Amino acid sequence: MYLVRSPFSLPALPIPSFADFFHFNRVEGVYLGLGFDSKHKLPLNRITLKGGYGFSDKVWKYGITVEQFFSSNKKYSVGVEIHKSIDFREPEPIYSLNTVTALCLFEKVDYYDYYLSKGWSIFNRWKPSPRWDIRLHYLNENHHSIESRTNYSLLDRSKKYRINPPIQQGNLRSVHANITLDTREFIDLGVFEVPITTQKSWLINAQLEYSDEDYLKSDFDFTRYYLHIRRHQPTFATGFLDVDILLGGSSRSLPAQKFFDLPSRVEDFSTCGVFRTLRVKEFAGDKMAALFIEHNFGSYLFRASKLPLIKNGKIDFILNAGAGWTECSEQYSNQLQNIVSTEDVFYEIGFALGRISSFLRFDFSWRLTHRGKRNFVFTLGSSMYE
What we know:
With 386 residues, the protein is mainly beta. It contains 2 helices and 20 strands.
């Protein structure tokens, strides 16, 4: 989860991601835009410009960022940005906007819940080493609810999208700190940079956001915490173990657009670090914890079995398990009708076959708790390590 660095972008060109030129979702419909990113073209500055129009919500969006570095090694910088954009509440993106576009057009399902934000921020960034990234910024923006504006897809025209739920509207003024440690090494495949699976690594992201009615004159009064820890550990032969820990918490009065969700599959598609038997937005709350454990045995077990057809193959065999919990404080029980917490810990287990036709992955997963009509789920994903 969150590990493929640059899908559908060309690092050598002064352009942002493909999604800044085209994307599709249930609130904007077709979005067309333009973008410019100076990247490494300027020695001590970085300028990012992007803007576009949503043909269903009929709203122009834009973003302008100017960052000033203070040395050629670019270890320290300050910057300012202004924006009018569609945002969602996840502290880290689960699925890229390009993936959301494909899922909307072909599966008619949209993973995110959206709201409109308009405002500005000032920030500074410190990179004491290539592995560390420390950011602090002050944010001042207005939040507005938006509705689903289209029911279009290429397939299954009669199916309906989920409604886009309302948020708590107002002016948010907050201080946000973000610390990231990333010890992974990558293979550059041009369009993608993919982590090397034979090296042990840590990926740690810690976030703290503070908003206050008295000192910051915000319409919101909360503190929000988030921590994601991933450990990648090679084991034996070509096998490796991945462990993900997600922790989210808050104090005082967290607005709906800042709640936590247990990450899930989208219809019959899934990625690493999500619950494959959960429906989209099935469980959420102002507190959250999740644990994912996955061991990829590579093709070792199949080769060791000496069974016909598979003993000479390169199919990976993977075992995985997950546990998750959310809680919704009593103060929200009558305010947020679309929020359902787990109450008890949710568990699932499964196995997967990777490198099917070189790049596909088949997952077979079972719910152990919170069981219902569909307790076994088959999902399709990418066998590229993410």
